[in-house]
Amino acid sequence: MNSIFDTLESSVRSYCRSWPVVFTHANAATQITEDGTEYLDFFSGAGALNYGHNNPALSAPLLEYLASGAVVHSLDMMTPAKREFLETFQDLILKPRHLDYKVMFPGPTGTNTVEAALKLARKVTGRQHILSFTNAFHGMTLGSLSVTGNSLKRRGAGIPLTNSSKIPYDDYFDGSVADFMWLERVLEDSGSGVDKPAAVIVETVQGEGGLRAARTEWLRGLAALLKRHDILLIVDDVQAGCGRTGTFFSFEDAGIEPDIVCVSKSISGYGLPMALTLFRPDLDVWEPGEHNGTFRGNNPAFVTATAALRTYWADGEFQRQLGGKIDTLHRGLEQIAGTVPGAGVRGRGLLAGIVFPDLESASAVAAEAFANGLLVETSGPEDEVIKIMPPLTVTDEELTRGLDILAAAVRSAVGSPELASA
Ligand code: PMP
Fold it and tell me: What share of the chain is helix, strand, coil (3-state, %, to 5)?
């Protein structure tokens, strides 16, 4: 192709290399290209489209808001749209979960909320060091990169990424080393030479790093250990949050209460940029304006965020239906993985996938799925996992159709003998 995308746009672009088509329209779990080809979208804007594309429950209030002449850009000034969002978030999300958090609006992206969380943890504790986990992904700016695992991404920083160390995520040693043994020992040993960290940042499911999901007991153990040592727990719920794992926050099943929570991607519900940093009220030590940013007041995003919470989280019905879809997805993935020796299912909720025993299969399956009308990406340091992330609003028919395309792609790309006769 010799289009303006190739001639003018930087070589840094990536998704469009896997999907070399021009998307024009989108609706729910479907995207349509310029030549009218339809794709089932099980990528969901990398987790920013949990309620599907152009959801009418969100576009209607958005269009009305834009047509009304109401304020669009407001930095951190007060607007009715922000008031309604804060009230709705408090009433439908925080209060029912007995979570007492202050809400900070950092810049509008995932990495913005992570940077704010790291900065706040350092300011509150007066300590510099942050611990994060093997294969973690927290964003592309320097602070977030310093707590990210991926070596290609880290190299891109071009400077040493300091003041953070990696510790093993759940099951890193396949159960052969007791959880937290290293961390517990070095924290208790005054001769360990490991500086006491300000915080530990963790994803409950590693969305980019290979879809490993931490067990609830592991998360509880981590939270308890950090509490004993007066170290802050930051949960990065940028990708796993907003319902992705079956509950609004991904840590609800574990029954833990992080000190700081990072939220972005699907909080606006419509793919509009928005992020939140939530923290315990006693951690709110910011000076006014100490951390700011031009795009913290994206009012159209507040409008769609409020509509999404009211439409889907006002009662338990959406979450109940989500549970059924999660079961269907995991049953389907187990069945497909069972046909490939050495393959296995990873992940939690509608953030799941199949890890292959080699480094070529997942990319081959993604390419074959694309050829057959399904958008799925890969995950993991070597792209060894095929990642299935349908919108939470996916219909049963779409879910079954997507799984059928995936099974056929595995059959064709990996050539699993058990499926050949299916
Ligand atoms: N944290 C997590 C867990 C993520 O998955 C991502 C994005 N994939 C980020 C942070 C960074 O978000 P953004 O790309 O919006 O900066």
Answer: 40, 15, 45
Examine the pLDDT at 421 and tell me if it is beyond 60: no
pLDDT at 9 over 70: yes
Rounded Cα gap, residues 200 and 220, in angstroms: 13
Q: Report, as an integer, the average pLDDT of 322-326.
A: 98
**Domain 3-55+317-420: homologous superfamily in CATH:** Aspartate Aminotransferase, domain 1 (3.90.1150.10)
Question: Which ligand 1 atom sits nearest the alpha carbon of residue 140?
Answer: 16
pLDDT, tens only, 261-287: 999 999 999 999 999 999 999 999 999
Ligand 1 atom, smallest distance to 275 CA: 15
C-alpha distance from residue 358 to each of 136, 363, 364 (Å):
21, 10, 11
Binding-site residues, ligand 1, Cβ < 6 A: 46, 109-111, 114, 137-139, 203, 207-208, 236, 238-239, 264
Report residue 28's pLDDT band, with 50, 70 and 90 as the boundaries. Answer: very high
The domain 60-312: what is its CATH number?
A: 3.40.640.10
Residue partners of 67: CB distance under 8 A and separation at least 6: none
Question: Which ligand 1 atom is nearest residue 236's CA?
Answer: 3
Give the strands of the sheet with 38-41, arranged side by side: 23-27, 30-33, 38-41, 374-375
Domain borders along the chain are: 3-55+317-420, 60-312
Q: Is the pLDDT of residue 341 over 90?
A: yes
Task: Report the separation in Å between the CA atom of 310 and the middle of ligand 1, taken as the mean of its atom positions.
Answer: 25
Q: In the predicted model, is pLDDT for residue 181 greater than 80? A: no
- Residue of 43, 50, 111 best suited for mutating to test ligand 1, as the one with most atoms within 8 Å of CB: 111
- Mean pLDDT score of the chain, rounded to an integer? 95
Expressed in angstroms, the distance from the first to the final Cα of the chain is 37
In order, the DSSP letters of 190-206 are TTS-PPPPSEEEE-SB-
Taking CA atoms only, the protein residue closest to ligand 1 atom 13 is: 110
Residue 330 pLDDT > 90: yes
Rounded to the nearest whole angstrom, what is the distance from the C-alpha of residue 137 to the centroid of ligand 1?
7
